[in-house]
């Protein structure tokens, strides 16, 4: 069984994330969505909320596309998380050249730690390349329309969080 790990903070999950998730399912038998517990980033949503949002979105994706998706929180090194879930491949989404520089360094370090785990880069769909969770949160905070960037249920939670 080929297991892939798609890690991120997913604060919140965007249509860019769901695009990568759907396409990654074609590459692996089981896709593990690794939800990073990154206290340094100061997430808007708690770990539990991010996991819940991803599980809800992934349920719809597997209903449409098939495949197996597991949502898995982690706080250790990415390479250790990959080992923990039995992943042979780490899937990373790229939006722009700036993403590649950081990701290139990460791949080098991960290969130094465990060269048996490959990294695959997937470009977001052209319509989704500009979407970043950080920008989505800022637009929503300032009262802008984020419906083109996040799934409807996520938009509702964003609005409730920022208005409540």
From TrEMBL:
Domain Cytidyltransferase-like: 5-138
E.C. designation(s): 2.7.7.3
One of the record's GO molecular function terms: pantetheine-phosphate adenylyltransferase activity
Protein residues bound to ATP: 9-10, 17, 93-95, 103, 128-134
Protein name as catalogued: Phosphopantetheine adenylyltransferase
Residues engaged in binding substrate: 9, 41, 78, 92
Protein task: Reversibly transfers an adenylyl group from ATP to 4'-phosphopantetheine, yielding dephospho-CoA (dPCoA) and pyrophosphate.
Keywords (A to Z) from UniProt: ATP-binding, Coenzyme A biosynthesis, Cytoplasm, Magnesium, Nucleotide-binding, Nucleotidyltransferase, Transferase
Protein family per UniProt: Belongs to the bacterial CoaD family.
Leader sequence segment: none
Compartment(s) of residence: Cytoplasm
């Amino acid at each position: 069984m080929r297991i892939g790990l798609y890690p991120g903070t997913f604060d919140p999950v965007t249509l860019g994330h769901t695009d990568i998730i759907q396409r990654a399912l074609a590459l692996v038998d089981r896709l593990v969505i690794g939800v990073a517990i990154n206290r340094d980033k100061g997430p808007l949503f708690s770990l539990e909320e991010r996991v819940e949002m991803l599980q809800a979105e992934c349920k719809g994706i597997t209903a449409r596309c098939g495949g197996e998706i597991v949502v898995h929180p982690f706080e250790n090194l990415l390479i250790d998380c990959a080992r923990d879930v039995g992943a042979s491949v780490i899937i990373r989404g790229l939006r722009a050249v700036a993403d590649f520089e950081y990701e290139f360094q990460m791949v080098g370090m991960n290969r130094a730690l465990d060269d048996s785990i490959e990294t695959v880069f997937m470009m977001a769909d052209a319509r989704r390349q500009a979407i970043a969770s950080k920008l989505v949160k800022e637009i929503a905070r300032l009262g802008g329309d984020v419906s083109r960037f996040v799934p409807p249920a996520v938009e509702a939670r964003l609005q409730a969080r920022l208005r409540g």
